[in-house]
Amino acid sequence: MKKTLILLTICLITLSSKISYSQVNKSIIDTTKQWNVLHTFTGTQENKKFTNLYRISSEDTIIDNKAYLKLLKASDYDTSLAVNWQTNNWIREDSNRVYIFTYSNTSCNGVYYDLPREYILFDFNLCLNDTFHITYEQYELHPEPLVVSLIDSIEIDNQYCKRIFFNGADPLNPQWGFYWIEGIGSNGDFINQNDDFLHSTWNLLCAYKNNNIIYDAGYGYCYMRLDTKEIEQDNNQITVYPTIIDKEINISSDKYPIDLSVIDLFGREVFRKEIYNNRAIDLDFLEKGTYILKLKHKDTIINRKIIKK
Asked: What is the mean pLDDT of residues 128-152?
């Protein structure tokens, strides 16, 4: 009798866990979402950083009798410019797996392909100690499989979502290591999940839904552009407060003038002003939501996230 009760309890726990991880609205395929990914390139003497943006188009595309949506990407993005969305690949989701269809050349298991193919990008059915091979990118760059080392959950958009850590990544230091989040994707790039031979790295900065942040990776900003001409200096050079505002925001610095831009989370500049002294800036006209404050003095650029209540 005790064995039966124990087995029944285990079954109920397993079932409840599966149910909790298969709730609705945890889909990555959501046309109201946007992902901001920092691309850092150190392949030359120049240290270049810029933000790539990803969105999913609502336009259906039928390929091999399967329905895909377009994965849109804005590369080398600068918040002072309009967003130039381009089709990057095609994406679909089925049974807790995310698939990507590409026309790019690639190789897998030592075999080179120049034909369009579908690849599994994420598989949220993985269990502890399961393995996953990165096959979308050049396979020779990732000959060793990813191994699931830990599974937990994290609150995203008012619900708990599954988080899968690989190869011993530490949940206490989520900016390091490699992991997936249900409804969000990889903590790296939406596509390039690891470093490549060009000495590039990708880090997910923020994810949004309906122009509101639902995931902040904790870097302190959602946009960045950094090269030899534009260098983000010590954050103490320009003080911005408060970061959660009703009507006004205060800007103070010992260096002027400062070019101030307010950017919404879709990359649109909604306000611009040149500041010549310490003062309060009236932002009462902004709609409720999250914005990026871009402040520039000569070669110094500082980005700040603010929230309009």
From this structure: 77
